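Q: what sequence does this backbone want?
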């Protein structure tokens, strides 16, 4: 993390440190490594599990234990919806029937600026 100027933060369940600057840092451990390609290839896909994920308090939807998808950006697909630049970009079939924030009474929500 030194070359990237990131701050190590101890994890609680795994040996690898978390990144303090990340608003949603998972604690991860590698469970398998899969070599990709033919004999001359030098690529490996690592399979990991995350027994715990920490979330910045300002990113939690008030009154819940859920991450506010309008407050956490950037992601391409989060919580079964497509987001970019702080707004939902288009409908997503996986989101149907999942009671995502825009489907709750009150309708559309605006993205937050900054964190609490």
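A:
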């Amino acid at each position: 993390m030194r070359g990237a100027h990131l701050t190590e933060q101890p994890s609680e369940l795994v040996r690898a440190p978390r990144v303090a600057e990340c608003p949603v840092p998972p604690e991860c451990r590698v469970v398998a490594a899969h070599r990709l390609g033919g004999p001359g290839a030098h690529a490996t896909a690592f399979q990991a599990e995350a027994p715990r994920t920490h979330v910045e308090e300002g990113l939690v939807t008030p009154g819940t234990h859920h991450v506010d998808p309008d407050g956490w950006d950037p992601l391409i697909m989060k919580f079964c919806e497509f987001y970019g630049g702080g707004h939902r970009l288009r409908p997503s079939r996986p989101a149907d029937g999942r009671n995502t924030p825009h489907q709750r009474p009150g309708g559309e929500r605006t993205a937050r600026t900054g964190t609490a």
